[in-house]
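Appendix B. One record, verbatim.
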Amino acid sequence: MQRRLSAPDIDFEAIRIELGVNEDYGAAALAEAQQATDAHAAEREDHTDVPLVTIDPPGSMDLDQAVHLRSDADGYVVDYAIADVAALVRPEGALDSESRRRGTTIYFPDGSVPLHPRVLSEGAGSLLPDQKRSAVLWTIRVTHDGEVADVAVRRALVTSVARLDYAGVSADAVASRLHPSIAALPEFGELRHRVALAAGAIELDLPDQEVVSGPDGWSLQIAPRTPADLWNSQLSLLTGRCAGQIMRDAGIGLLRTLPPAARDAVAELRATARSLGVPWPDGQTPGQFLAGLPRDAPTTLAVMSHAGALMRGAGYLPLGVGTGPADPPAEDEMIHAAIGGVYAHVTAPLRRLGDRFATEVCLSVTSGKPLPDWTVRALPTLPKILRSADSLGSAADRASVDLAEAVVLADRVGERFDAVVLQEADGKRPARIFIAEPAVVASCEGSPAQGSSITVTLTAADPVTRSVSFAPA
């Protein structure tokens, strides 16, 4: 019998309706987006001579970042241009109000619902190739040992000369034909990755389910992770670290935080590793241990699944506003433990609300100018907005995957699948399993041992309730 691995059609509109997500921005907000002009045109430095490039998924139009990277005798020079959304959105106007209501771009398998109207997020505000664009240009000097030596932030006029994607950059690196603007990216990305791990950064390499549309319809796959994904992420993380440091030192801004992993969570992870026979070398941080695990081992999935307990309690912390100066946050309250230091979101203002305001703080602090009143008023209100937006984005993602799982598997009840047990049943929750093809993460009856490879039978798949269940075969 031919096993079906895809579904000819899946309708995600019901999820959008259920979550109240749509592209109705209101006439006033849409008009502001259509008429947006650069409020800081007169003060921009002209850096259109820097041959910046963007690296994004194929087909992306909301391009927040463009980069030029070069090495010299002292190390590396990173020019990182970020779309200057604050220059295009009138403070406390209709578009600003609508973006605060939304908080973030929400993604679905059949398209996104942007934070800002597409005429801005995919047009005037996007760093599209061969266009002069308003940007906030970060120039960061990094030494040969990966440490930050100097940071400059200013408003600039820039031009991207090429739109690249992750798979293409990875292939070009293998073939030694990288675009000259990012020829040093692989070595730089690996260097910064090592520095981050040494500082305590933690990365969870769990299967990331992706609902993909292809010639045969919708299918469930594992989202590809290329070397370029890692290299490019280090640019964003570096900039976020620099932004966080600027705001922490100034005592004002908006930080992304995560408390240090609880001792019992680390102890439990060590116990899990021991029970699975996975060695944890002496002296390795949790992040270094996880990064060194073999990707193709079933036990790695189980260990990574348990490592999620190290990363609980992420939040947003406004500095210098809404709290008294006599009671400033403690140092560890300002840290993002999974990144290994102070951190802030500043690199995706077209898609995340908080980045626009955090960037404005960095520009004001580094130039010695007073922080705009509209930014000061907004900072204490942002954590609640951003937490709600994060929850909505997670709900959209989970509901979409759940629906796709149920639809793709609907006519396969009774069939058997090879699976890896991510977590065993603990009395409160059933066991969790991962199936590679189609890419499914689901509950499983019984008490299979974590980290084991087992065969399971699909016992139910209901598109109405968006649920599937399995039992050991």
